[in-house]
Every structure is written in C-alpha cells, then in structure tokens.
Amino acid sequence: MTTHISTISQETIHKLLDLGAATIYEAQGAFGALSSQLKPIDGTMKLAGPAFTVDMRPGDNLMIHYALLKAKPGDILVLDAKGFIEAGVWGDVLTEQAMKLGLGGLVVNGAVRDASAIIAHGFPVFCKGLSIKGTGKNQPGKINEPIIIDDVVINAGDIIVGDRDGLVVIPRANLNVAITQSIAREQKEAMFKEKLREGGNTAELLNLTETLTRLQLI
C-alpha cells in the first residue's frame, strides 16, 4: 500500500507535544508505549505526527530511500529494522533530505549514525542504538503497511508522540478521545498537586490507605 495518510493540524501537534508521551500513554489506558530502549538521540528532541511505516530488512536501507520519494510534510518515518543495531540505517545525508521534505521526525527500530550532525540539524530521531557500520541497498520491503515494534502494532496514519520519556502510539481513530482523556488526566494531576501543597498526601489522594492498612504498613 502506498496511499498517503492525511496529516494533522499544527494545533493538534502542539497539543500532543504539550501533553507528552507519558500522559497520553496513561490516559489512553496504559496502552501504546514502545520499548524503553527507543529513546531520542538528544534528550530535548520531541516529535508528533502521523506514522509513515517502513518494513525493511536488517542492515539494508534501500526502502528508506524509496520511502523518502513518497513521504509528505509532517510525516513521522517509522522504520522497522527488526531491532538490529549493528548497522546505522540513517545518517546526516538522509537527515538533510528529510528536513527538505518537511518530515516531522524519525523512529527507528534499529540504529542510526552521524548522531552529532543530526543533533546539530535539530531533526528529532528516536532509535535503539548508534552504529558506525554501513548498510546494503538491495533488499525490498513494504511501506505504509502495518508493522509490529515491541508487541505494538503501528498502522500507517497512527499518531506517534515522542519525548525524553519515550514513545507512544495513538490509533488514528482514537486521536480525539486520547487528547480529551489526556487533558482530563492533566487537570486531575493539577488538582492533586494543589492538595499536596495544602498538606495532603498521595496515599489519601490515590485511595491507598485501605491497601496499606490491609498489608499492615500503617
């Protein structure tokens, strides 16, 4: 499948970035978190946008070059390199092209290289590792088909949100509900913080007193 998935508004992207990956994950029912091994190459990097999925062979990045002929501004390239981290499938040259296209960022179930140059460009990249080793450019794959990374199914057009804490996937159909639930969670936590400032405690706020009593901890 090569059909392009429509982008989402900048207002929505900013809202998702403000809410953050952890809040969204919890608010949508502790669902959609990718592995804690997938982290930004710089802690200040954030991304949010629709997934452009790429199913590729480990150690071969031909499908990335093909995907960049099809991806649209705002897309988040999500590359399933099968967790292989002994080859850097992405580097500074691909980053230049991605930025020229206006892509929103990159998620790699694998490794990248040229990390310092990518950081200098300010292009958000999340990956499982860094490797100076190169790749082949010979093997076929698929774009915009469902992929599975760390037991999480990612469909083309699902929304990816990432920050220092990690990455979360929002099923496209659930986007508005996830945002509403995340805002409600933030409001609840703001109330908790206010009560803590007034002398309350988390055991009471989270209704843990009965459990602590049953376990003879208090």
Automatic annotation (TrEMBL):
<protein>
    <recommendedName>
        <fullName>Putative 4-hydroxy-4-methyl-2-oxoglutarate aldolase</fullName>
    </recommendedName>
</protein>
<dbReference type="InterPro" id="IPR036704">
    <property type="entry name" value="RraA/RraA-like_sf"/>
</dbReference>
<feature type="binding site">
    <location>
        <begin position="91"/>
        <end position="94"/>
    </location>
    <ligand>
        <name>substrate</name>
    </ligand>
</feature>
<keyword id="KW-0479">Metal-binding</keyword>
<dbReference type="InterPro" id="IPR005493">
    <property type="entry name" value="RraA/RraA-like"/>
</dbReference>
<feature type="binding site">
    <location>
        <position position="113"/>
    </location>
    <ligand>
        <name>substrate</name>
    </ligand>
</feature>
<dbReference type="GO" id="GO:0046872">
    <property type="term" value="F:metal ion binding"/>
</dbReference>
<dbReference type="Pfam" id="PF03737">
    <property type="entry name" value="RraA-like"/>
</dbReference>
<keyword id="KW-0460">Magnesium</keyword>
<feature type="binding site">
    <location>
        <position position="114"/>
    </location>
    <ligand>
        <name>Mg(2+)</name>
    </ligand>
</feature>
